[in-house]
Design brief:
single chain, 5-stranded antiparallel beta sheet, 6-stranded mixed beta sheet, ATP hydrolysis activity, disordered C terminus, binds magnesium ion, 11 strands, 23% strand, disordered N terminus, alpha/beta, ATP-binding, Rossmann fold, binds adenosine-5'-diphosphate, AAA+_ATPase
């Protein structure tokens, strides 16, 4: 608890309390209560089937939880659709990236995932302006030097494509960006470039939720981590207070969780 009564605590960017999601008989989420602090990178880890995708899809408005509450900046919200999530400033970059391969980088950055019906349409799609603004967006993210605005996305490397998708997510004012295994398909150098981009997001005060299976990546990038197992959020650690091996143990269940009913042996520092 806070010691000074006069101090104000910033609420987390996102907090869930008691989220439950069932698919028929499958309990994909069971009483999931997690927090994602504003301006931090939070890793979300867990074995296949642990519930990671279901959790982020619930935050992204693709699933609606059967029970429980989601708060954004301390206010209870109903994330009933992807559009509502976007209006709340939550953007998700799924593994398929959602880019249109035959369009240029600039065109992809300006692609709305919903039809634009506005008198501004003509101006928005003005190629010249679009290129200039696209260049600015990439530069703001520190990615301008390695991504040509006129390049066709199809011919770009996996790292460049990931960067375009991330830039597009933040281009329109997202304050929370969810990344689903952004480096899973990338080599070492390209992963490093994506890591740089993720750090840049944090520098800009953006809250990042990062699904990853790469413990090295988690240890070097994240500020904190939630561990999921069989639909439950079983452990939370600050990265400074944990190790890769401890996280592996928590993920597999070899290390007894914080929240389980089994008495946990003391974890030595
Ligand atoms: N649309 C769905 N219909 C039925 N079962 C689902 C659906 N989505 C996920 N599940 C089930 O929910 C559980 C959690 O899955 P998921 O959230 O995809 O885990 P993870 O992303 O951690 O691998 C799994 O048992 C999975 O089979
Ligand atoms: Mg998944």
């Amino acid at each position: 608890m806070s010691t000074a009564t006069t101090s104000t605590t910033t609420p987390p960017a996102i907090e869930t309390r008691g989220l439950v999601k069932r698919f028929g008989g499958v309990h994909a989420l069971q009483d999931v209560s997690v927090t994602f602090p504003r301006g931090e990178i939070t890793a979300l880890i867990g074995d296949n089937g642990a519930g990671k995708s279901t959790l982020i899809k619930t935050l992204a408005g693709l699933h609606v939880a059967d029970e429980g509450v989601i708060e954004v900046d301390g206010t209870v919200v109903q994330v009933t659709s992807p559009r509502v999530a976007r209006e709340l400033g939550i953007e998700t970059v799924y593994q398929d990236l959602g880019l249109v391969d035959d369009l240029t980088v600039a065109e992809n950055l300006f692609l709305s995932r919903e039809p634009i019906r506005s008198p501004l349409l003509g101006r928005l799609l003005d190629k010249g302006r679009m290129r200039v603004r696209a260049r600015e967006m990439l530069d703001e993210m520190g990615a301008g030097h390695r991504i040509p605005v006129d390049g066709i996305v199809r011919w770009m490397s996996g790292g460049q494509r990931q960067a375009v998708a991330i830039c597009r997510a933040v281009a329109w004012g997202a304050s929370v960006v969810i990344l689903d295994e952004p480096t899973a398909a990338l080599g070492v150098n390209e992963s490093a470039e994506v890591h740089q981009l993720v750090r840049r997001l944090r520098e800009q005060g953006i809250t990042v939720i990062l699904i990853s299976h790469n413990f090295e990546e988690i240890m070097s990038l994240a500020d904190q981590v939630w561990v999921m197992r069989r639909g439950k959020a079983v452990a939370h650690r600050r990265i400074a207070d944990t190790t890769g091996p401890e996280l592996v143990g928590l993920l597999t269940g070899a290390t007894v969780d914080d929240r389980g009913s089994v008495a946990a042996p003391p974890v030595s520092a």
